[in-house]
Write a structure and sequence with these properties.
Elements lengths: L1 H25 L7 E2 L18 E2 L2 H12 L3 E6 L24 E5 L5 E4 L10 E4 L5 E9 L6 E5 L20 E5 L5 E10 L5 E3 L6 E4 L11 E3 L5 E5 L5 E3 L4 H8 L7 E2 L3 E4 L9 H6 L2 H4 L13 E3 L13 H4 L7 E5 L2 E2 L6 H5 L7 E8 L2 E8 L1 E2 L2
Parallel strand pairs: 1-2
Antiparallel strand pairs: 3-4, 3-6, 4-5, 5-8, 6-7, 7-8, 9-10, 9-13, 10-12, 11-17, 13-14, 14-15, 16-23, 17-18, 18-19, 19-20, 19-21, 21-22
């Protein structure tokens, strides 16, 4: 009995010592969960081996993302005339009103390329760009994107902050999405998934997916950017309110670095994605087989389980005339399995992969024709 009371007393004494002596002395809790929401442990040099008891307040991370993302946004303003001789009197005509932009843009390269939903390619010299630190930049170049509803403008600089684009494969339903605009407004929603155009047959020369959020972005977020909790840029919202994954702009950005005016490439065919189909089993043939032969066999022929099949649409042929696809010898009914060893499936979309390459580049296609696999080289053309 003495041992039991002594043991219990030791436990109680240890708890008191930890709660009233060790915790205040070393600045962290030895009992219960660790709560980092109030920055109590900054500079403590803690190494956490079991993270399940660590509480991190999500609101703090959202605020951090909003704050850091703002530096990659710019305001676009109708250019004011150069003021006359400076006088002593204050005049609003000599200033840009920050809360009255013509639109907004998103910095995509450190050397001054900016994506915007504004249609100002033909009259870009009539506008200026203003950054968060209120520096004013003259626009010296502009280019239109034929595949999205965005345009690109350029200003002279070398040190713009750039955000990482989130890969479309990494965007999943339920992920947090944080919209941020130039005026400092923000909204928080979650990724609902992706929308695709109606119809079974798709074109190799367009993007098929748009991002869908659980909540519709407010109208003041047209032209703004959606980020994830890690601060990566997920998408831009166009003037119609559609949400374009920013990974769709990567191919255009590569061409901007090469100073090309045409930002997009073309393969020139229509296709059906086999990953979205399931083949009806050949029941008469299978019933004629011996039971032992039928045992364990899948209903779907392995030839039709991956890739895309070149197919015509009601309004368009399977392969466009004088296209790279036609010149390389591709035929209707060919199954394209991979492009440059990147397999086509539910994650890797044909149109997305084609736009990763520039016009004039050669890509290698592995195809299946009448059950025989072969490799075909294709030189991409400019998208017209």
């Amino acid at each position: 009995m003495t041992f039991v009371f002594g043991f219990a007393g030791g436990l109680a004494g240890g708890a008191v010592a930890r709660a009233y002596l060790i915790d205040p002395l070393f600045g962290f809790s030895t009992i219960g969960d660790l709560d980092f929401t109030a920055d109590r442990y900054t500079g403590q040099g803690l190494v956490i081996s079991n993270a399940k008891n660590v509480i991190v307040q999500q609101d703090a991370k959202v605020n951090e993302t909003i704050s850091s993302a703002a530096s990659s946004l710019v305001g676009i303003y109708k250019k004011k005339p150069t003021p006359g001789k400076a006088g002593d009197n204050f005049s609003l005509e000599n200033f840009y009103k920050i809360n009255e932009p013509a639109g907004q843009g998103f910095i995509i390269t450190s050397d001054g390329w900016i994506a915007t939903s504004l249609a100002l390619v033909k009259n870009f010299t009539d506008y200026v760009v203003i950054t968060q630190d209120k520096k004013i930049y003259q626009i010296d170049k502009a280019a239109a994107d034929s595949l999205t509803k965005f345009n690109f403008i350029h200003v002279q600089t070398r040190d713009f902050p750039v955000r990482k684009f989130a890969a479309i494969q990494d965007i999943r339903g339920g992920n947090l999405a944080i919209g941020v605009n130039w005026l400092g407004l923000n909204f928080v929603s979650t990724v609902a998934g992706f929308s695709e155009p109606a119809g079974l047959v798709k074109s190799s020369d367009v993007f098929s997916k748009r991002l869908v959020l659980k909540d519709k972005p407010p109208s003041e977020f047209k032209g703004s950017v959606v980020f994830n909790l890690a601060g990566e840029a997920l998408a831009m919202i166009d003037e119609a309110g559609e949400i374009e994954p920013l990974s769709h702009l990567e191919g255009a950005v590569k061409n901007l670095f090469k100073n090309k005016t045409n930002l997009r490439s073309s393969l020139g065919l229509n296709y059906i994605d086999l990953s979205g189909l399931a083949q009806i089993a050949d029941l008469p043939a299978r019933l004629a087989e011996a039971p032992a032969q039928r045992a364990g066999q899948a209903g779907q022929d392995s030839r039709w389980q991956k890739g895309v099949v070149i197919a015509k649409d009601l309004k368009a042929p399977a392969i466009k005339k004088n296209s790279p696809a036609e010149k390389s010898g591709l035929l209707e009914g060919d199954i394209i399995i991979s492009i440059n060893r990147q397999e086509l499936n539910q994650v890797n979309n044909l149109g997305d992969i084609v736009q990763d390459y520039s016009a004039g580049e050669t890509i290698s296609l592995v195809i299946s024709r009448q059950g025989v696999e072969k490799e075909i080289k294709v030189i991409l053309d400019e998208l017209k």
